[in-house]
Structures are given as C-alpha cells and as structure tokens.
Design brief:
Oligomer: single chain
Low-confidence stretches: none
Mean pLDDT: 94
CATH class: Alpha Beta
Radius of gyration: 18 Å
Shape: globular
Number of domains: 1
Strand content: 25-35%
Bound molecules: N-oxalylglycine, manganese (II) ion
C-alpha cells in the first residue's frame, strides 16, 4: 500500500491495495491514521461491487442505515447503500424536478453528512461508477485550516459554542419544505461548533447547510453568526476540488471537512455513485 499526499496537506491517494480483499490489521490501522491526517483518501481503479464497498466501509465503523430515502436506495438492495444517480430506472436521464425531490440537488451547498442527526456520519464512502467527462467535482473545505486561520480572540469567542442543526434548515436552504411528520421526526440537534480530533489534537470548525443558529444567545444574532461563518469557510483558500475518474472510491472524514457537489451537464451525461455512510460512535455532545 502506497499513500501519496495530494496538495497543501489535504487529501491523499492510496495505491497498491485491492479493496475487494479484506484488509490486514496493519492496513486498517494505517488507513485510519491516514484518514485522521489527510481527511480525504482516494483509491483509484477500484472496480468493487456494493458488498465489497460495505465490507471496506466496516473497517471505519458501523454503516448507516437509510430507511427514509426510498428513491435513493438501490431497488431490492441493502438499506445501507445509497445510489446517487441522475439516471431513471428505464435508463433515461432524470428531470431537474426529480433530482430535487431525491435530495441530489441538496448536496450543492456546503454540508457535513447527517450533521442534523444526533449521531451523524463520521465517514462517507463514495464510489464513482459513471462520471461525466467534465464537471461534477466534489469540493471539500479543510475545516481544520479554516479554524487555524481564525485570530486567537475569535477562537476564544467561538471555542465552546453550540449550534442547532436541523434537516429542516438544510432542506429550506434549497427551497424544500419538510412535512409536519418529518418535522416531528427530525427535531433540531445541538452540535459543537468546534471539534477536536483526539488522535491528532487538531481542531476543526463543524458546520454547513444544516446549521441554523448558535445557541446561548438571542436567535437573530445566533443566525447571523452562522451565516458569517458559512461565508468565511467557503473562501477558495480552504477549498479543494476533487475531479472524478471512473472506479475511484473516496472516503472523507465528516468531522474535519465540509463538502458539496458541483454542477455538470445533468441532461447530457450520467453520474452514478454508490454511497455508504459510517456512523459516529456516540452523540457529539453529552446530553
Ligand atoms: C454525498 C455528497 C457529493 C457528490 O453523497 O453525501 O455530498 O459530489 N455527494 O456527489
Ligand atoms: Mn454529502
């Protein structure tokens, strides 16, 4: 196994490993350490099936089950595997309204996966089955770099803040309203604004489109604070763009990044991804 850093201390490419085979203990330990350090790992040339992707995901924790996202589940498949695709069952390309309904467009804004859940996804594994020749990159913010670049006085003011995250906020940001049932099912969740990786000691901001307002202050300034921070983290100096090749498998650490999908010619090209989330071990805050 050969791990090569990508650029500016963010991301690494991993070669000379076959993800169809079980990992050795040594490989698993090295990859967990690399994920801590590089945050984004890319494995090119891995033509793996869904079961193999699940097997690989299990090295990083417990895969998330997606019960509600019926449209995105593979028909007859495992609820832990999401198909992100602009292709219809009959092989034609979907209309924009269908894509919006399925939440595919919802990933166009900066977010950390499932940060609106009490136990969010720690890692996400995305496998590129079909990718457009141009566009459709996945962009990442190095949330450690964004934290590090803040002045000390600002860090002091932010360090212990807690922010409300909700599915409702994330959907509203892309113009979709939750049903009353969904609103009851998915109440806002308090999350820390700053997270520390216990193994590297590095701190990172934790927020994205699901964040609505900082708690412990009146709501309006709490909302303004979140909006300011969202504008701050999106600066190009913190952003890394990942250009896909077919059979790339990537894994990212949702505790140290935010990410978003980018547009491509949806009505011309297919973009077919298989996605598996891996859960945090516990809620991020003591309740
Ligand atoms: C995701 C996601 C980005 C992409 O699967 O959580 O945000 O580029 N995907 O498809
Ligand atoms: Mn995502």
């Amino acid at each position: 196994m050969v791990i090569t850093p990508m650029d500016r201390g963010f991301g690494a490419t991993v070669r000379a490993i076959d993800l169809r085979q079980p990992l050795t203990d040594r490989q698993q330990a090295d990859l967990l350490a690399a994920a801590d350090e590089y945050v984004l790992l890319s494995f090119p040339g891995q033509a793996i099936d869904d079961g193999q992707q699940l097997g690989f995901a299990a090295n990083f924790g417990t895969p998330t089950s997606y019960f509600k996202r019926k449209a995105a589940l593979v028909p007859g498949g495992d609820p832990r595997i999401i198909s992100l695709t602009n292709e219809d069952a009959d092989g034609s390309l979907k209309h924009a309204s269908e894509l919006a309904d399925e939440g595919i467009m919802a990933s166009r804004l900066w977010h950390s996966d499932n940060s609106w859940r009490q136990v969010p996804d720690r890692f996400t594994l995305l496998a590129g089955k079909e990718v457009p020749p141009t566009g459709g990159n996945t962009e990442f913010i190095d949330m450690r770099a964004a934290w590090d670049a803040l002045p000390d006085s600002r860090k002091e003011a932010l360090r212990t803040l807690v922010v409300a995250h909700s599915r409702e906020q994330g959907r509203a940001a892309v113009g979709v309203k939750l049903t009353d049932e969904e609103r009851q099912l998915f109440p806002p969740v308090p999350q820390p604004l700053v997270r520390t990786n216990p193994r590297t000691g590095r701190q990172a901001l934790y927020l994205g489109m699901f964040a609505s307002h900082a708690l412990g202050m009146p709501e309006e300034p709490g909302r303004q604070l979140v909006q300011q921070l969202l504008a701050y983290i999106g600066q190009p100096r913190f952003v890394h763009s990942y250009a896909w090749q077919v059979d790339d498998l990537i894994i990212w650490d949702n505790a140290q990044t935010s990410h978003r999908s980018t547009p491509f010619a949806e009505h011309e090209y297919r973009r077919v991804m298989r996605r598996i989330g891996v859960l945090e071990q516990a809620p991020l805050l003591e309740r």
